[in-house]
Amino acid sequence: MSRFLDVPNRMKIATPLHNAALYYVFPVLDLETPTFILTYDYSRGYKAGKEKEFVQLMINHSNHKLRMYGSAQELLENINVYESFPGNDMCFGTPTDVFQTRPKIFTSLNNEKYIAKSDLFVVLQNIYFSLRHGGPILSLVSLYLKSKQENIGKCTEFVKFDENRFEQIQKKMYEEFLKRKLSPAEDQKTLREFSKLSQTEIIKKFKALCPSTFNEHQKESFDNVVERFINACKNVIPTEQIAWCYSRCDIFISVLDIIINENLSMFSPRSKNSKEPITLRVFEDGDQRFLMKSEVSDALIANATLSKRLDDEDDENTFHTITLKEVLKNFDTKNIEFIRYPILRAKHRATPVPAPTAEKHSETCILSIDAFFEFFNELLLCSKYFQKADSNLQDVLNVLKNAFKLDSSTPCFHRISIYPTLSTIEFRRCNTTYALFGGFLSQLAKVPAKNVRNAEKDGFTVQILKKELASLGLTKKFPEIQNYAVTVYSEVNKRKKEKVLRTCDMFDAVEHCQLNCILERLPELKKFVHNQKGCHRVYGLKCKDCAAESSETQKDQKLSILEKELADLKIAYQKVLEENLKKSLENQELQHKNLRLSVKNETNEIKMKQLTDKLTKSKLSIGDENYSNPCTSPNTSQLKIQCLICEKSIESGEDQIIRCPLCKRRFHSKCAINWLKEHKECPACNGDLPKI
After folding, report:
1. What does the buried/exposed string (b/e) look like for 320-347 if buried means 16 or more CB atoms within 10 Å of the residue's CB?
2. I need a labelling partner for 474 at 20 to 30 A (CA). Which of 279, 347, 448, 685 fits?
3. Can you give the pLDDT at residue 607?
């Protein structure tokens, strides 16, 4: 993986982590929350690698407000999951903070690596840090990059993750810095110029460095940073150092402008004439794969393969989806690269997804089912609504009908906004729950309600859970709530992070007991949760629709298993047939080979016999010439010759014979005539016999 993904430890600061933590836990923050954790006072002395200690310090000074989030390690892990999305620094950092988050690498359906365009500015920053240990007015460096990042606006595009290209950018940046390296004479010239300027004129000269592409808001931020820097330097930093900073800032901005302009395909939205593929996010949630209709419409229109948009049901807060299967089946997706985008969830909050039509990077969205559960988490545990309110559940249902499309059977996204730097009260007002309930919940703010008590060191039992539900007054609103204690307790016990159940587990049990009661009393909500695939997230919930689907799924699975087994048997049978055919051919080949060897062997035997006969005759001739044998008559020395066809002897002096011209073997004439009716070869040597 590229070395330009990690922010150097020397550049790590606490601000983004502090803001992400505040937004993750803000439902429990109220007017009684110590201002200590709402400011950055406790972040002083923060060092990279000490994040756990940082979060523990936050817990220690929270006035017991953060008990539901578990240990510092658990809370830190959940915050890390929560803030893991492209462009998160625009939500949790400030315009002048250095990028802090490591960019995430995504994979396409073609198994190629991609990176979000908004995260390329983090890579560009890290390339700069690889060449420079810091920089003149580091705030200007960050402001410049974040302003450029903001200029890509609604862009949720991706580009291929090309490490070689990053290396080339670093090389180019290094060369540009070398070209612009100032000589001592040039530094002296700038110093002389600055020594003649007033503070106002110096500020004006710095402001002139502001890129022309900045909008009014960005220019204002740039001017503010410059003014704060110059005012802070007054009577502290000599004029030559201010001049040095100015010249280096000028170099930095000009070099980065060159890099960005030479790589516009990376650092700007895709142009209409671009040959690069259009990238589309494919959201993956369990076994579901779906896309935002608005993004699909934009992509298909850009491809000139769609005339009417698909997102006519969308409104300013809701984005509907379409399955990947439908897109691939019904539309021409040439020149489109599908980027796998997993839906991530921390324990209490879902990881935000950059909104497709966001005017600002702080505008994100989450699935409606996640917004639903976050709503109830705050309503049940933070606002303690059912411990205080006398109203019936229909009030809650009416509010939810205005916020969610309860009849939707497909996943849809709910827009949310992140404003982490606001005060506690403003924090709450921009939250979904407070936006929905308005002044209604504020009327209950002063109504007293008991807090969930701490668990003992050895944990808690089902009976203790039932007593806690009664102590909180929930048995008055939900008389049946204790009936869910056993199943909920069992699920909480399965999911516990330590050996014994803790206070955070008691919070989970109390929340899910209430959820079971509410969903059983409001079938419309229960159907919504089922349609949005959320039933498994409510501990102990019994859903008939899930059971029916499970039964059908089991049947389908059994049928699929049988079909697979049948297909496997067919493949195995075909393989056996092929093996048998192969063996049959091999056996035929062996038989032919054996036959050829048998004939050859017989021929060799005949030749051996002929040689033996010749040898025998030769010995006899030698004996006749050199020795006299009175006991042997001439007739007894004559050898009998056998006809190979009839296997009978050929008598001495018989003239009705045929001789093979090759092997000189003799046969009866009659036998040879009959043999040649069916054969052409000599039965002894397979040579041609003369025709008779």
Report:
1. bbbebeebeeebebeebbbbebebebbb
2. 347
3. 80
